């Protein structure tokens, strides 16, 4: 599994180490793996896009006459 956060972190790590370099796919192992999983095709159209999943919950309770948001 690859999330957009993983790919972003990979990109930041590589670029921060060599900001003026010219990079290849070998410099980004997670992206290389995704390309391999897509059958070697380029990943430009978003059909194999990796997106982050998240869940958010708000709990509101009334305690001793006051509302609390947890």
The helix content, as a percent range, equals 25-40%
Shape: elongated
Q: Give the N-terminus to C-terminus distance in angstroms.
A: 31 Å
Mean of the pLDDT scores?
A: 80
Total helical segments: 2
Oligomer: single chain
Point out poorly predicted stretches: none
How can the largest sheet be summarized?
Answer: 2 strands, antiparallel
User: What would you call the structural class?
Assistant: alpha+beta
What is the strand tally?
2
Helix-strand pattern, N to C? HHEE
Rg (C-alpha, Å):
20 Å
Keywords:
70 residues, alpha+beta, 2 helices, 2 strands
Task: Describe the fold and architecture.
The protein has 70 residues and is an alpha+beta fold. Helices cover 33% and strands 11% of the residues. It contains 2 helices and 2 strands. Strands 1-2 form a two-stranded antiparallel sheet. The longest helix is centred in the N-terminal third of the chain and has 14 residues, at 4-17. The radius of gyration is 20 Å and the shape is elongated. The model has no long low-confidence stretch (mean pLDDT 80).
